[in-house]
Design goal:
CATH architecture of the largest domain: Roll
Strand content: 25-35%
Structural class: alpha+beta
Oligomer: single chain
Number of helices: 5
Distance between the termini: 64 Å
Largest sheet: 6 strands, mixed
Shape: globular
Number of strands: 6
Number of domains: 2
Order of helices and strands: HHHHEEHEEEE
Length: about 170
């Protein structure tokens, strides 16, 4: 019993911190990696909650904005919350096809790690289609050379969430 007391004290301290710091609990317990506190720490993913405050209820325009920010930052962690089980992926450096969320993550990470995104903006957004999509262009720097990028992203509903069904970089 004496050996269990420090363990029980640790559990009580953790429980107390969760009761007194609900924002911290929400930020670290969600499987969707939704951050509800204002400070973002290095290496931490921040997904913007939709205006209505309900995860999974975001409007497609908010999803377009989040994907655009992720592309501009070259950070796959900002894009991956919108991956479904699988998606069609077309990259200059990989074979086009359907890939799982994990495969897509690593293929996109490889693509972005070899480039510094200088500019990117979705110039055409079609939120009202049955399969919403956005296209845009930008510039990336790879091995000292600027290259033009054209990106097409389409979405589908998976339950209450919008997920990427196709992600093409030309």
């Amino acid at each position: 019993m004496a050996k269990q007391i420090p363990h029980l004290i640790s559990i009580l301290l953790i429980c107390a911190s969760l009761v007194h710091c609900p924002d911290m609990h929400a930020a670290h317990s969600s499987s969707d990696k939704i951050s509800t506190h204002s400070g973002v720490h290095p290496g931490e993913v921040q997904t913007i909650l939709p205006a209505n405050g309900e995860p999974g209820q975001e409007k497609i325009e908010e999803v377009f904005d989040a994907i655009e920010i992720g592309i501009l930052s070259g950070d796959v962690k900002r894009i991956s919350p919108y991956f479904g089980r699988q998606m069609r992926l077309n990259l200059p450096s990989a074979k086009s096809g359907y890939y799982s969320a994990n495969q897509s993550y690593y293929l996109l990470q490889t693509f972005f790690s070899g480039r510094k995104i200088i500019s990117f903006k979705f110039t055409s957004r079609r939120p009202d289609d049955t399969a919403p999509y956005a296209t845009g262009g930008g510039t990336a720097r790879s091995r000292g050379v600027n290259e033009l990028l054209q990106i097409y992203v389409s979405f589908t509903r998976a339950g209450q969430r919008w997920v990427i069904s196709e992600f093409n970089i030309y």
